[in-house]
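User: Can you write out an input/output pair for a complex, sequences first and structure second?

Assistant: Here is one pair. Inputs:
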Amino acid sequence: MVQIPTSAGGEFLAGCRDEAPLLLGVAPFGMIYGIAALAAGVPAWVAQLASAIVFAGAAQLVIVQMLAAGAGFIPIALTSGLLNLRHVLYSASMAEYVRHLPRRWRLLLAYVLTDEAYAVAVLRYQQRHAAAADATADLRHWYFLGAGFTLWAGWQLSTAAGLLFGATIPPEWELDFAVPLTFIALLTLLLRERAGQAAALVAGLGALAFAALPYKLGLVAAIVLGLAAGAWAVRRLEPVR
Amino acid sequence: MSTTTLVLLLVLVGVLTYLYRYAMIGLFASRSLPAWLHALCRHIAPASFAALTASGLFVAGGEVVFAFDTPRPWAALAAVLVAWRTRNVLATIGAGMAALYLLKLLFPT
């Protein structure tokens, strides 16, 4: 049984400690993002700023790849706005654990609510729940904050490392190719069910079919068409429950 | 895109993302997520990554180009095979980059 800290600081540090191993998986993406941002012509300070205000790895990689391909404002905003919509799911999953907190806490925790912080914090909430509903004050939001802060710091530092490193490597190394490779890897992990495969197939073909649309709007059209295909496949493959 | 426009774009995406994160713990804390939104979220990531991968590999300057005489499509194929066999993200990126360098070494242009 994991020891359960009883102070705010103890919870915070426990969150930091449990999040730390995940940084091994996150840091390479921060570096790839930094390197690819420079290759796409993004000024270093803007790339670092994006890590602080967007703070979502997949969306930042998407923005960089679209910038490199000469996409316009609206297609990039629509694509990354759609891609990040999944954060509403994490928000919904955390709602029952943080609903009782004062607004300032919820405003703060929303900022650090990423895939990786959610994964660690939700385990803590479930674990303590199963252990005992004891009378001690519930300080688990400090744990959540510790996990989120650790991920945030790791993301900022790995972005900075990528920007420093990226400035010194020649373009012949083609490290920007790591971005589509990342999408291939994530895509393979996601393609478990038929409906998702249909969505991906239609979106992929759509990206080629609409390639000629200006400002890369074809990407947005392809993703929307893919979502429609996914919805259609769900209705077709999973009959009325 | 000018730097000012880019910063505006990033602020817009950042604010939107923050609102998504705050939505169900703040803005709509007393409600549950609508079923249609839940279903939509499941397919956004696969559709986005597929469109971006296809576009990144086979679209250049608004035209579809199957450049099978260049290393990148083949390196991507190697990455797909490794991704499928290992289901490991870093191994996939490593294999794709290694294949790219190997192909460039074997078939210098």
